[in-house]
Task: structure prediction
Amino acid sequence: MTVAIGDIVEHFEFGPGKVLELLGTKATIDFFGEEIGCNVNELKVKKAFAPNVAAHTKSNNKNKIAFRRGFEAINLGVVPPDSSSLIEMSISGEKVRGEVRSSLDNIDSQGLCKVVFGNYGTGKSHYLHLVRSIALQSGWVVSYLEFDPKAVDPAKPHLVYREIMSKLKFPEREDGTVSIGFHGFVKEIRKNWIIIRDQPNFKKNPWFRFGLDTLQFYPHNEEQEYISACNWLAGQSVLLTGAGSIRALARGTNVKPMAIPNMPKVKEVGEIYAFHLVVVNEICKTLGYKGLLIILDEAEHVRGYNVTRKARANNFFDILARSAHLPYGEGYPALNDHGYDFPKFWDNGPHFGLYIGLTEGNTFEYEYTSLKDACVFLHGQEDQVTLNSPSRNDYETWCLNLLTNFHEHYPEKTELISSTDDRKRIAMTLADEFKDNEDSDLVIRIWVKLACLVPSVILARGVESVDEIITIIQDAVMELTGGSMPWE
Result:
């Protein structure tokens, strides 16, 4: 076996380490900061990351059960549970997939901070769930959360950080394994500690650096003290005050307990938790993932805050946006006086990716207001994604695909629409009604449900001809748009 200086190796007794020096059959290895000499034949060269993260470019789940679950979900107005079903069941899903993949692929050269504008019922949350699924398929670690005035208050950055860590979802690796939650994330870090600890932002973050250094001295298990220490690093509340749980573990190691700072829960600490997210993104990329993508929905809740809370939230938002964009080049974010010194991480990004869901409201009420003043996440027109109603042709194509897939999966129950011409006729009727009523108050969710009505009545054996199906569609549209009187 050939061992070279700088190789990551593993010793049966001392664990993983890094080769510092070689002299004949003797080697000096750095094991967790301690230099130990040993024989080369006692070492095993360690592969850092295996297997790789799988990246799926096309929907690969066409089975009957997945399709039915997806259909039932959109019929109920909720998000399909399966990523492939979500993309397949979305109007213009393949088009959105291409746009999102392009944004993810170009993050290093263009940054990625997209604000998705859409009124209630226009599919804003559905679009963000679609982004989540596409990113996971592309090898990104994703966290999706909805702002809440109490549980996830952006005026209290530690609550947002805690929720982001609790909602981490990891893509599948090529051998089918998937890390589960922050605890699984720590396990991956431990396996590749020699490389993780050398990352530049990681070394400058005392919470992660000394916290994870402490955890290396203990087995990765379900012991309460160990779990509490992991939870502390993820921003979760612990029974002991401050950093007590992690410091208690540090007393049995060569890490100085007081080197581990408190995880602050005061309100003026936005840059601390933004820097934590920068470090998490750095770790994700070092572990072989594409990076960290954060999706924040319902950002309009901030509009109802008082002046002080809104200022704190916007300060946190500004730092998040700067971390997701290319260096802004104009001024600095408003930093808080908390006593910690950070690298200017907002000037050497982009780091993580960011998607924001926001109802437009009065965001652009004043035409002379700059984009950034109107919405702190917007640094340019390309950051704005405005959801519009789909075109007639896109809706017709989606309806036809829905009926075709239904017949392919349930041929014995959908004999009534076995003819391609009949399916096209039904899809054309739906599309014509959609076009004729595009100025009505019917949101796209209602039109999706109308299309789902067709296979529903067929499965229920409630119709005997295609003409009867078309009549049901037209009657339903007339009732929804108020085109008929109750006694008619």
